[in-house]
Description:
Elements: E1 4-11, E2 20-27, E3 34-44, H1 46-53, E4 62-63, E5 67-75, E6 87-91, E7 101-105, E8 109-111, H2 118-138, E9 146-149, H3 155-167, E10 170-175, H4 178-186, E11 191-194, H5 200-207, E12 213-218, H6 225-229, E13 232-240, H7 254-258, E14 263-265, H8 269-273, H9 276-291, E15 299-304, H10 308-316, E16 323-327
Parallel strand pairs: 9-10, 9-12, 10-11, 12-13, 13-14, 15-16
Antiparallel strand pairs: 1-2, 1-4, 3-5, 3-7, 3-16, 5-6, 6-8
Amino acid sequence: MSTMTVKAIKMFKTGGPEVLEYVDVELGEPGPGEILVKHHAIGVNYLDIYFREGLYPQPMPSGMGQEGAGVVEKVGPGVTHLAVGDRVAYAGRPSGSYAQARIMPADIVLKLPEAISFETGAAMMLQGLTAQYLLNDTYKVQKGDTVLFHAIAGGVGTIACQWLKALGATVIGTVGSPEKAAIAKAHGCDHTILYREEDFVARVKEITGGKGVPVVYDSIGKDTFMKSLDCLSPRGLMVTFGNASGPVPPLEVGILAAKGSLKVTRPTLTTYVLNRQLLEQGAADLFQRVISGQIKIEITDRYPLEKASQAQKDMADRKTTGSIILVP
């Protein structure tokens, strides 16, 4: 059996950015249902920080990263939808994309259209597929809907904002600074709210003439959850899909009745990528919108693979907007 040695980021314990180590890894042959991918670009996401800090537990030692794009170098037994030489991209578990190459399950990997670069592929899969399921499945946004989307200038937010405009929605977005408000406006956000300075509930009520919105998309978590419920119209849906400020505290479900028969959901991309039919439908939608130019993926920062800890630190410190990639 032939082996190859590659560089990868590993973590042997949870903690701050300093726990990420740049090490040598031995790769053998891909097993049944597996492929070996050589990465050309790797996506960096807030989700990675949750794994690093231990908010989402995983066995140690562990790889890091959920997203990448590259070329198939080897194909294991039983893999029929991919071949050696295919350009591919993926998002989803198991962690391990922060590497020059890796062996991974083939069933979450998609062929990357020639019209999309490796860098764009690596930067768009996790955030783009997240936006796709949020706006088309978790809640099916209709033309004329007004929605509230927290952190609209972030990676998922900037993609979702363009997508919402393409669907004919009115977008209310929260941001943390005037600079991020300008980014949101540039991506089509109709109403920006500086949530640190303004009462976002009062502003949403003002914008909607007191009615509230049918859906709130919230990746902030603890700091925004309860006030987000007050932005919903009766029978509205609260979508909590991230915990940037910390996990949402336990919820007394009676509050949902008192506030107007509200609904709450906590979707995750993992559910969608593990269902091949949903994955292929979502990816086809995403690819088509990116190729047509309806959604532009902006890569604002590139870091060499060995600087992964700095990339995560800058993201956690909110110094980045749009998408960040690592270059192996």
